[in-house]
Design a protein that fits this description.
The chain is of the alpha/beta class. It has 12 helices and 13 strands. It folds into 2 domains: about 140 residues, Periplasmic binding protein-like II (D-Maltodextrin-Binding Protein, domain 2), CATH 3.40.190.10; about 100 residues, Periplasmic binding protein-like II (D-Maltodextrin-Binding Protein, domain 2, 3-Layer(aba) Sandwich). The N terminus is likely disordered.
Length: about 270
């Protein structure tokens, strides 16, 4: 199977405006942050006024894919981004060399979903399972299957195993790698799909109710803020941490019915 070919779907809603201006031209009191629409941009917009009360302006740029926010940050069009986990950041040597993960905010438990079966035990041998095509989330899918006793992978692969690292596949599952944002739309074409929490929520999928299997709250895949190396001590970033890791945000996450267990605060 040919896997892990990154596909950039497209950028976002307001990217043209921000990129035209360029984060490099922002004032020292403005922070431009790239984010996935849900829940990341939702949470950032929630704290805009609190951030302003500290003397700063927060600009939020939404992205529909997982690649462009990092390339835009490296190029200087963003000051930070908020959408990814450490394993995802470290899946690229270039990102790992140029970017720093500072602190986490939440986990989006990764789940397995199906339009055809109501429980994982109903999924037949030889079933086709769609998984993300990037190494971090594709590996995350295989580890979810392993954690539920459905297959085994070589422990030497760490947090990024591929199908080549599967050492025992008693149900002969076949894994189809797709761009993560496409996975909710793939549910009618496959037997089941492993879907990131943000894309599940955006598609109207309720993780607490609909997942056949789902990660626990001890997942190592914490979503947090990333900046360019050298910008770790930026006071704008310190101010954002103060308002984003707040009781207000935690209460919002806990009480939001749309998130429905698909977003869990980690601080």
């Amino acid at each position: 199977m040919k896997r892990l070919s990154f596909v950039v779907l497209a950028v976002v809603l307001t990217a043209g405006v921000v990129f035209a201006a360029g984060a490099k031209q922002n004032s020292a009191k403005t922070l431009t942050v790239g984010a996935s629409p849900t829940p990341h941009a939702v949470l950032l917009n929630l704290v805009k006024d609190d951030y302003a009360a500290l003397g700063y302006e927060l600009r939020v740029v939404e992205f529909t894919d997982y690649i462009t926010p990092n390339t835009a940050l490296i190029s200087g069009d963003l000051d930070a981004n908020y959408f990814q986990t450490v394993p995802y950041l470290e899946s690229s040597d270039d990102w790992k060399a140029k970017l720093s993960f500072l602190w986490g905010v939440h986990i989006e438990p990764f789940g397995l979903y199906s339009n055809k079966y109501r429980s994982v035990t109903e999924i037949p041998d030889g079933a086709t399972i769609a998984i993300p095509n990037d190494p971090a989330n594709g590996g995350r899918a295989l580890l979810l299957f392993q954690a539920n006793g459905l297959l085994k992978v070589n422990p030497a692969a760490g947090l990024r195993p591929t199908d080549l690292d599967i050492t025992d596949n008693p149900h002969n599952f076949k894994f189809r790698a797709l761009e993560a944002a496409q996975l909710p739309r793939s549910l009618s074409d496959v037997d089941a799909a492993c879907i990131n929490g943000n894309y599940a929520i955006e598609a109207g999928i309720n993780p607490a109710r609909d997942a056949l299997i789902i990660e626990g709250n001890d997942s190592p895949y914490v979503n947090g803020l990333v900046v360019r190396k050298g910008d770790e001590a930026d006071p704008r970033v310190a101010a954002l941490k103060q308002v984003l890791q707040s009781k207000k945000v935690k209460d919002y996450i806990t009480g939001n019915k749309e998130f429905a267990g698909g977003v869990v605060a980690t601080y």
